[in-house]
Amino acid sequence: MRVVARNADYTKEYNRKLVLRLLRHQPLSRAEIARRTGLTRASTSLIAAELLNDGLVREMSPVANPRGRTSTPLMLCPEAGYAIGIYLNRDGCSAGLVDIGGNIIVSNEIRMTGEGDKLEPLRQVIQQLSQTEGVQRERLLGIGISAPGPLDGESGRILNPPRFDLWHQVEIGPQLQEATGLPVFLANNATCLASYHCGRPESYGSSNFLLLLVDSGVGSGVISKGKVLKGAGYFTSELGHTTIRYDGRPCACGNIGCLEEYAAIPKLLNGTGFHSWKELVDALDSDPEAVYLMAQEAEYLSAAIVNLTNLVRIDSVLLAGDLLYGAERIMPLIERRVNRRCLSYGCQPIRVYPSASVPGIRILSAADMAFDRLLRI
Amino acid sequence: MRVVARNADYTKEYNRKLVLRLLRHQPLSRAEIARRTGLTRASTSLIAAELLNDGLVREMSPVANPRGRTSTPLMLCPEAGYAIGIYLNRDGCSAGLVDIGGNIIVSNEIRMTGEGDKLEPLRQVIQQLSQTEGVQRERLLGIGISAPGPLDGESGRILNPPRFDLWHQVEIGPQLQEATGLPVFLANNATCLASYHCGRPESYGSSNFLLLLVDSGVGSGVISKGKVLKGAGYFTSELGHTTIRYDGRPCACGNIGCLEEYAAIPKLLNGTGFHSWKELVDALDSDPEAVYLMAQEAEYLSAAIVNLTNLVRIDSVLLAGDLLYGAERIMPLIERRVNRRCLSYGCQPIRVYPSASVPGIRILSAADMAFDRLLRI
DNA sequence: ATCCTTTTGTTAATCTGATTGACAAAATTA
DNA sequence: TAATTTTGTCAATCAGATTAACAAAAGGAT
User: Which of A100, A114, A205, A111 has its CA nearest to residue A144?
Assistant: First the structure.
């Protein structure tokens, strides 16, 4: 066990990051920062002066208070930092340059053929994005990559994605790090989305939630006490492989009866008259089969959510992916089932919400990892 | 979000606790502490001087090194701190006074009738234990209580334990805190045992493990990254209520098909010729039914463990309770099933071990919470 | 208008911790 | 015996936050 002691350097860095994190999602005056952090106003002033000097923060126009002197809010300069967000999928990727204010400056789509060096197109697009005018090299903080699992976020390696052969066993992290000299952060789609929602109003103020990404598979990202839930070896949650049928169908993962085998949209619709979740939702008021299938989907998901929440209590579930369409129909079904069945001694009931539908969220959430890790304390 | 800044006070306290934690389980020289913490030798010396002065630490006789000057190891004084550990069960409790070196100084058993003030006997035994000769009041650090779940460790309230009516809804934490003026820490048996194993050789060096306590119920304690896994509201894991049969028997918790309904020993043995786990184990070589039942038990437990490890990857499972008897027979059964079915991209296989069988472990693990929390950083 | 109160933001002096760099102490090796 | 290695201590220094004072900027009371 190597544990590091604290010293003045650490203290300074910690407090600086603390202030930056506070300013990440809203502007605050020096006095307000002092109140929220427990720092004295004097210390806050010193830190603010340094951040102003470094060009990370700027003063906004003064704001009147109910009583007393006006305060001048500080805001994070959007141009204080940039990151490149890359969203990988089966046959290509979307990539974009994002500033720390959450604006996509430029973006790009690439299709991949699978021939030659798979990383070459990525290197090119990164090269191109990082030469965007007005972006100084030293302001480019890192590269965030959102990819379908399974992968090893720590070593930056994509493992053995089913139906995703293109990227089989590619050490994307180290290789891009090598090529660009920038830190690379890799996470699966759902974890990436979950991480993006944390601390934002889009997550309804919760810092203990499950993000459930249902489309051709079932992905999960769990935020517990404001941090991505990670186990040994930085393995992140795979709710898609919770067993919900002990005598069920075999899954590619080697187990049987996995949630994904039932709740992934193609699996749910297999053998029915529906070809997409949208089609099913649109038929809800006319076709009893649609109603039945949605109830089934809610049943499958709820079974897995109950198992999760009995292990790591969450207070809400955010739906993402196909389920966003007609979310208001399935939300109460899941909510009722989950709360009826989970242990809940003295806890608030679990709420189900739609996740944020922000334009470009796939690129934004990927890039966000780079910002988040660099402000991480 | 209230997040506190760091200052010199924090730094000092952090480093002091860091050193004390390092010395908790083995003696180390100043130079070795410096190497492990990253502190300079000078700082380590200063901290050590203070700890020596406070009587928390003492010097051992010098030890020769392969080369260079001899080093004088520092050890935590066993009498540096004491805690009272209380293990509650259905009809009474065991209580003991424990020193920080892990020695039980005095202990006591109480039977409870359920009449009158349930807390009065506890107050008396605490009073009595805390007046043990040679124990200064200011060295008594707290009271740790290990109880069958469910309970709310944070508010110190026992909730609604099935088959445990005596303690229904008792606010044991605040009440004993009020009566004694000491901090009170409450956790369920399994969590308490898990926490005790963490950081000790008894947990085989792991800091990501599940402790599975199987007897009349199924309790679980998960240690992830060296800390007890807690969700929102400080809810701890309840693997006993993972669904392993979607069409199974109703459980007292309101769900159906919970692990506990199948794997708790009385449930497993119900309707068989066996009256205890020991009887079953002893019959393994002569009675095929015993073999079948043990395989069943392994099957049930494995199903739940797989679900757990797909959410929060662990590297080992420690068996406690009845399963300790004949553990070497069931261990490989569980190990094989779990590793065959869980996601394990690039991870080491999960190992199953017996938990420590230390005399008085119930009292020790309860008391340990008080020590642990006070050294917690 | 003027004073009082409240709140914000700044400043210089101070405090408190770890670090630096030197050194003595205690052992082994050449 | 001298050189080397490692441990542990000391005084001087450094680097942060804090303290306590103050000026600045508003609103409300007289």
Answer: A100
One domain for residues A179 and A125? yes
User: Looking at the domain assignment, is residue B2 inside a domain?
Assistant: no
Using CA atoms, how far residue B70 sits from B29, B60, B62, B202, in Å, is 10, 12, 6, 30
Separation of alpha carbons B299 and B65, rounded Å:
51
Query: Which tokens in the block code for residue A333?
Result: 């079904």
Phi, psi at B128, each rounded to 5°: -65, -45
Would the pLDDT of A292 be above 50?
yes
Whether B153 has a pLDDT exceeding 90, the answer reads no
Residues 6+ away with beta carbon under 8 Å from B18: A3, A5, B37, B377
A101-139 pLDDT per residue, tens: 999 999 999 988 777 788 899 999 999 999 999 999 999
pLDDT of residue A1: 47
Q: Say how far B234 CA is from D30 C1', in Å.
A: 55
Whether the Cβ atoms of residue A314 and residue A332 lie closer than 8 Å to each other: no
Strands A82-89, A140-147: pairing is parallel
Average pLDDT value for residue range A224-246 = 93
pLDDT above 60 for A281: yes
List CB contacts (< 8 A) between B340 and chain A. Answer: 254
| Residues B245 and B330 occupy one common structural domain | yes
Is B342 in CB contact (< 8 Å) with chain A? Answer: yes
**pTM: predicted TM-score of the whole model, two decimal places:** 0.93
Q: What is the domain-level CATH number for residue B43?
A: 1.10.10.10
A208: nearest CA partner in chain B? B232
Partners of B244 on chain A (C-beta within 8 Å) are: 243, 246
